[in-house]
Amino acid sequence: EPEVTQTPSHQVTQMGQEVILRCVPISNHLYFYWYRQILGQKVEFLVSFYNNEISEKSEIFDDQFSVERPDGSNFTLKIRSTKLEDSAMYFCASSTGVNSYNEQFFGPGTRLTVL
Amino acid sequence: AQKITQTQPGMFVQEKEAVTLDCTYDTSDQSYGLFWYKQPSSGEMIFLIYQGSYDEQNATEGRYSLNFQKARKSANLVISASQLGDSAMYFCAMSTTGANNLFFGTGTRLTVIP
Fold first, then answer.
1. B25 closest CA partner among B66, B59, B74
2. From the candidates A10, A11, A31, A43, which should be mutated to test the interface with B, based on the most B CB atoms within 10 A?
3. A41, A56, A106: residue with CB nearest B100
4. From the CB of residue B71, how many other CB atoms can be counted at a distance below 10 Å?
5. Which residues have C-beta within 8 Å of that of residue A31, sequence separation ≥ 6?
6. Buried b / exposed e across B20-49, counting CB within 10 Å, b at 16+?
7. A3 touching chain B per CB within 8 A
8. pLDDT at position A90, please?
9. Residue B25 pLDDT grade (very low, low, confident, very high; cuts 50, 70, 90)
10. What does the pLDDT read at residue A111?
11. Coil/strand/helix, residue B99
12. Which chain B residues are within 8 Å of A53, Cβ to Cβ?
């Protein structure tokens, strides 16, 4: 069964450093998402991406964040200068469509720890 | 604005018993979808079940069923014959057509007691 994959599974970085989180969505999916979950809290939407551009973003997704689809398979989230409060689990998801009934398939997550 | 409320931070259930996890939602959209995800201690998000706002019948997937009461804006998850492997966090989420993201509740931690 096709699945969303994410690398690395765990990333430790120093405050102020740049990190890139990588995702490979399911191959025939067209919509891609990033969510984050601070430890013990709910999952929060960051950004959605379609047709090589951001279609929607939350207020969390400020200028420190960027997304890119550098080739036909990868989807990346970059945090330019990490802060302590960026420590969280980051989930990538993908879907075939954007209607309310389109299931979003989640990857296993990348746990980011900022020291 | 969309909102999902899960009022039960933690629930306990005896193995082989049924359990209901509550979820209420609020939206002004007429077309929306409701999802339940399971998050075991390993951290991944596992899709369990989906209910569309126009679906007249409650969704079922194996031991999972969704008790959808549209007038009350509730979408409770029912797990029948609980197993030890059901111990996890459970999140209710909603999407609306046109807002292509999921809104999540705060989750309910379910513990199945042997």
1. B74
2. A43
3. A56
4. 5
5. A48, A49, A50, A55, A94, A95, A96, A97, A98, A102, B100
6. ebbbbbebeeeebbbbbbbbeeeebbeebb
7. no
8. 97
9. very high
10. 96
11. strand
12. none
What local confidence, expressed as pLDDT, does residue A84 receive?
Answer: 97
pLDDT tens sequence for chain A (115 residues): 779 999 999 999 999 999 999 999 999 898 999 999 999 889 999 999 998 999 999 999 999 999 999 887 899 999 999 999 999 999 999 988 766 677 889 999 999 999 9
Across the interface, do A100 and B45 touch by the CB < 8 Å criterion? no
Question: Looking at this protein, which amino acid is placed at residue B50?
Answer: Y
CA dist A82 and A115 (Å) reads 9
Name chain A contacts of B105, Cβ cutoff 8 Å. Answer: 42
For tokens 């194996």, the residue is B62
Dist. CA B110–CA B11, nearest whole Å: 5
